[in-house]
Amino acid sequence: MAAWSSEVGDGLFARRLLGVPVLIYRLPDGEVVACRDMCPHRFAPLSMGRKTETGVQCPYHGLHFDRTGRCDHNPTGKGHIPAGTHLRMFRIVERHRILWIWMGDAGRADESLIPDLSLVPEEGGAHDNIGNYLHVKANCLLEIDNLMDLSHVNFIHEGTLGNESMRSAEVKVTEPDGKVRAELWMPGTTGGFGPMTGQPCDQWMNMVWMAPGSMILEFGAVPPGAEPVQDPYCYAFHIVTPETDRTTHFFFGSSGTFDETEAAKAQFIREAQIRAFLTEDNPMIEAVDERMDGADFWSMRPAILTNDKAAIRVRRKLEKMCREEEAARRAEAGRVSASEPATQ
Amino acid sequence: MAAWSSEVGDGLFARRLLGVPVLIYRLPDGEVVACRDMCPHRFAPLSMGRKTETGVQCPYHGLHFDRTGRCDHNPTGKGHIPAGTHLRMFRIVERHRILWIWMGDAGRADESLIPDLSLVPEEGGAHDNIGNYLHVKANCLLEIDNLMDLSHVNFIHEGTLGNESMRSAEVKVTEPDGKVRAELWMPGTTGGFGPMTGQPCDQWMNMVWMAPGSMILEFGAVPPGAEPVQDPYCYAFHIVTPETDRTTHFFFGSSGTFDETEAAKAQFIREAQIRAFLTEDNPMIEAVDERMDGADFWSMRPAILTNDKAAIRVRRKLEKMCREEEAARRAEAGRVSASEPATQ
Amino acid sequence: MAAWSSEVGDGLFARRLLGVPVLIYRLPDGEVVACRDMCPHRFAPLSMGRKTETGVQCPYHGLHFDRTGRCDHNPTGKGHIPAGTHLRMFRIVERHRILWIWMGDAGRADESLIPDLSLVPEEGGAHDNIGNYLHVKANCLLEIDNLMDLSHVNFIHEGTLGNESMRSAEVKVTEPDGKVRAELWMPGTTGGFGPMTGQPCDQWMNMVWMAPGSMILEFGAVPPGAEPVQDPYCYAFHIVTPETDRTTHFFFGSSGTFDETEAAKAQFIREAQIRAFLTEDNPMIEAVDERMDGADFWSMRPAILTNDKAAIRVRRKLEKMCREEEAARRAEAGRVSASEPATQ
């Protein structure tokens, strides 16, 4: 995820992703363009420049780049443009109110790998809770660890989201369709949040991870013994993207499109989310990152608890994806260097 | 030295020592506990957690650790605790209103090596000047260098503690009982501070270093030719502990337990100490650290003056202690790896 | 360039040059002294000390160093001074209101290499615009790149110094006497700044670089077809010196000694200069440095435009100078190590 659709308005939008400065902008026909935010001439940030009808103009010496990244105008001197003056482009797709970017080779982009965020509600509800963002000073995987082991709710969020009665739940982990699903079923407990707060109930929090960084939470509470039907509005969305190795973009929100009579409910969820992340989760995640100080997770030989199961599976899946991507890249590089002369 | 006893109250006390985050707390029976301030599960700072009647509870997922560092409760899931889930513990001893810590292997701790700070007065005087602390942005040895060569007093502290008449004193260095004692005897000079300020007198400043970082100053002034008797209240205490390679904890204070009629005297000494360190010594020590920028002291080939004698001896002794400790560690490591399988 | 003459007054002046902390001061007989700003005893910054009639005294333990850098007084102990206690000295020369320093071996200093800044006006005009300084968070060569390719004027400074009519000028580069001269002749354009602003005119901006970092701008505008005579007061001066690899001292000003009736003209130029550098050039140069993040310029394979010609020639000349200086240093080191025992 590069950004919420709503973050990219009429202007030039700049964000560092996976260590790379990226520029994102919309053309008049609605196309969204993503490129490296650096002019190939003298390395100026194009985001300090000017959007045109057909592309972007560098602020430093005026080179213009079209939607494909090709330099199509040099206003200085006799207008000569050296061959190969082009931007590094990134495939970007808008879906479910989110801009999804592929930071690798365009040829390897595969839209079928975009996670299914169709539960994100349509825009326009009276109390829309989509589009939240926080910057986290921690490695991205620590944010995923946090979300995939919800037993932390009863400690970090004790009294706001969780309580002692909810602690003994043991996580059940499944892997439907390559996702990782962590189910916490807490029958006969005291409601931790929402309308059942403080009342006897059966409650649940199920977190579903989709590669690489999307996590959807299903949650609910019913009177003891009642059928645990998932409310179609009780979903929370959490998507993480590395800014750098030690900093993370954290996108979040929740469904749904509440009508006027449900304003209080939407408001409650939004405020609980923001308060929890800002004042309870993030200080902890950032403190852990500081303690790790860039060391490899496994080299620190963590004690593994039962409820780590889901987070560990996600880590293992991501490690496997990285290994496979790296192997493919190396194989590709071998083919290229065998058949072609080197180019920029 | 980890802390003044008075710094560790009822709560959890966190301080980085020798680069390691350390947690210190008191149990109801008075025992003081010191451990690494990092949960072995997900590396949360335990100091963000909660002290219990018998130990400390991690703030993140609720693991509890007893006074020996053993994890004795996992409130989540079915309560399973993986074998070997324990904290790194440090030996800590309270003596002379100070908490002394041993950061190495507990088996190599030796209380007889704790320096003798019995001159630190008992608590409870009307004008107690024990418990002062400053954070210094410099390598610990630069603070020791400063204190072991008091000829700097007549330059950095000219007009507040020293003066020109005191400059020509040559340091006399002895090594009683493995200590390093630097004596500055300044007969026929003008009083630099205290009641004899500005008057003809014989005065002295003797600094006694005890490994690794304690320095006690004896000082006084008498009319010319009178017997130079050390006033039992005229001692100043300086103890340094590395926080990191480039930052230092500096603990200081002075005797004694002054009664009401001597309030002005105690107050004078305290204020002179704090003002001198804060506004005169520390800016210089930090400027020197910046100039050295992490380089080895000897590699910078310092010019060695007569009055460096004591500081150099301390540096040589500390270098020897480090070499011996390292050799012992390596010998121990050799024995362990020959006789046992590796463990965490 | 170490400093404007006017920057070094009666006291001790400290500035980091080429990564080295340098102290500069004036003796009563007018001689200017430059030395490493670090005492060879305990590495204190001498600039925190005291200027005397004959040299400088260290603030820490009082060592005194004469104008040649020799330690000629140790006020402590018996006054012994270890052989070889001296400062690293730098050759420094005052010329054209500027202090020029040679940071290499004194034996290799060559005053004939000081660039000719004789166009800098004498002191004392009513509206003197000499002595301006800005600190830039970017590699020094990026500042030179900026000044040697003035086609940026019509983008970064569009509306204040440049405009669209001036864009198509192609730079003409010559190398008179080892200098690099970049001429932008813009006939039949609209005046970009100065008295001809907004009027049809023929205008020019010629930048002349002298090694290593001095750049003099000649500029002017005349009615179309008139003879383009350079106004003797229309020069702007730009001199850069590395503070570190990523930070630069930027000195600037302009001629001339305007009389009272021309006050508005002098004022206009000064204000335009300061505003342009502070709010338009430097933010861009610093953004480029951030994008490069310490990488080698050529390794980033910049697209080379026609108007880069002058900046590229300067880069090539500086690279050649560095290679030659390095080779000479190595040859010298070889001779020294073959004929002499090593000394400090």
TrEMBL record, chains A, B, C:
InterPro entries: Cholesterol_7-desaturase, Rieske_2Fe-2S, Rieske_2Fe-2S_sf, VanA_C_cat. One of its GO terms (biological process) is methylation. The keyword Methyltransferase applies. Its EC number is 1.14.13.82. The keyword GTP-binding does not apply. Keywords: 2Fe-2S, Iron, Iron-sulfur, Metal-binding, Methyltransferase, Monooxygenase, Oxidoreductase, Transferase. Residues 1-101 form the Rieske domain. GO terms for molecular function: 2 iron, 2 sulfur cluster binding; metal ion binding; methyltransferase activity; vanillate monooxygenase activity. It is an enzyme of class 1 (oxidoreductase). This is Vanillate O-demethylase monooxygenase subunit. It comes from Sphingobium jiangsuense.
